[in-house]
Amino acid sequence: MDSHMIKRIRSFNRYYTIWLEVMNKEYLETDFSWTESRILFEIHISPGINATELCEHFNMDKGYMSRILRKFEKQRILTREQILGSKGLKKIYLTKAGEKIVHQINTNGDRQIADKLKGVDDATCIQLCEAMEFIKKVLSENEKGGMPE
């Protein structure tokens, strides 16, 4: 891969993160950052996940994750339950208040995408989705050990 390709990919990444508004302090009209929203969503789709698994999934520093989880616990949007026989490992679950927040984030996220693409016809949206699926496939297969030649 040459430097021109790298610059094009990085340019797209910068554009896309701005387009998604992930740097907005109140992401999707909530009191949560993009990182916090993603962690809440992951707990939502993986009830009982533990902090170590979250760190591995997001490739995130344990101290940073710990601060976010403590904040959520103080806000009563998640609970932690000791795993029997473990040395301090705890399963993490969203409370009803946490589930309500995830629902709000999902609803606002759906509305955001619909609003941003309201002027795009269905055929173009299909092409866009196919391109995104292709990107995901290439990146995923490369991560698993490389694309076939």
Give a verbal description of the structure.
The chain is mainly alpha-helical and 149 residues long. The protein is built from 6 helices and 3 strands; from the N terminus they run ααβααββαα. It has helices at residues 3-19, 34-45, 51-58, 62-74, 96-116, 122-143; strands spanning 49-50, 78-82, 90-94. The protein has a 3-stranded antiparallel β-sheet. A hairpin with a 7-residue loop joins strand 2 and strand 3 (90-94). It is globular, with a radius of gyration of 18 Å. The two termini are 14 Å apart. The model has no long low-confidence stretch (mean pLDDT 93).
List keywords for this structure.
3-stranded antiparallel sheet, mainly alpha, single chain, 149 residues, 3 strands
Approximately what portion of the residues adopt beta-strand conformation? Answer: 5-15%
Order of helices and strands: HHEHHEEHH
Proportion of helical residues: 55-70%
How many distinct helices? 6
How would you concisely characterize the structure shown here?
The chain has 149 residues and is mainly alpha-helical. It is built from six helices and three strands; from the N terminus they run ααβααββαα.
Write the layout of secondary structure elements.
Elements: H1 3-19, H2 34-45, E1 49-50, H3 51-58, H4 62-74, E2 78-82, E3 90-94, H5 96-116, H6 122-143
Antiparallel strand pairs: 1-3, 2-3
Helix pairs in contact: 2-5, 3-4
